[in-house]
UniProtKB/TrEMBL annotation:
GO molecular function per UniProt: DNA binding; DNA-binding transcription factor activity
CDD domains according to UniProt: CAP_ED (cd00038)
A Pfam match: cNMP_binding
Database matches in InterPro entries: cNMP-bd_CS, cNMP-bd_dom, cNMP-bd_dom_sf, Env_Response_Regulators, HTH_CRP, RmlC-like_jellyroll, WH-like_DNA-bd_sf, WH_DNA-bd_sf
The protein's name: Crp/Fnr family transcription regulator
Amino acid sequence: MTGGSMSAKAPLLDMLGQTPLFGALEEADRKAVAQEMREASFGSGQSIFARGDEGRDIYLVTTGRVRLSVLTAEGRELSFAHAEPGHVFGEIAVLDGGVRTADATAVTKVSASTLSKGALMRLINERAIVREAVIRFLCRRVREADHQLEGIALYPIEVRLARFFLATARQKGDAETGAKVIIDLPISQSELALLIGASRPKVNAALALLEDGGAIARKDTRFTCDIDELEAISGS
């Protein structure tokens, strides 16, 4: 059973249009996707799925923040991404029939829309444009993973941080040369350290270095990012 009328799903339809996965679809195709989606909610700290679980659904975050992470052999948690409003996650196990490759945990209260494996496969089989969108999305994921691994392996922490702030600012769509962009980052320094593969003390020192150099200015959870300075530090 699919959920809700299309009038009730209008905000979801708009959000689907902003996602890398479904954004290129025509409105009729996005309506078909939205009609198959169901609402879900999770409390702060709640596990959404665990590594090794069967992949039954993909998720679109509508509010809140989700941590995607893995545990190393030594028991250390590595957070490789956060899914924020408009982000899709959980697609790999759904598409290849394997198990979940990571843990997904709600960092804050989270509302999401889910698309079941069966519904996605029907859409892929019935609509070639959905199939093509999925292929492009997976290729983008591979490029992002390569870029992240390169950053952790090759660059000092302040460069990784500068790249992180640049990427976050660019998601707002107004991170042009010469701009100063304010972003809200409601996560702890420990969470930020997990994201860039470093310890909390080193991240704290790197944040101070960026702030002293004028690349960022901090006030509570808000960061004012100087795009020119961040680009110079990151080598972008």
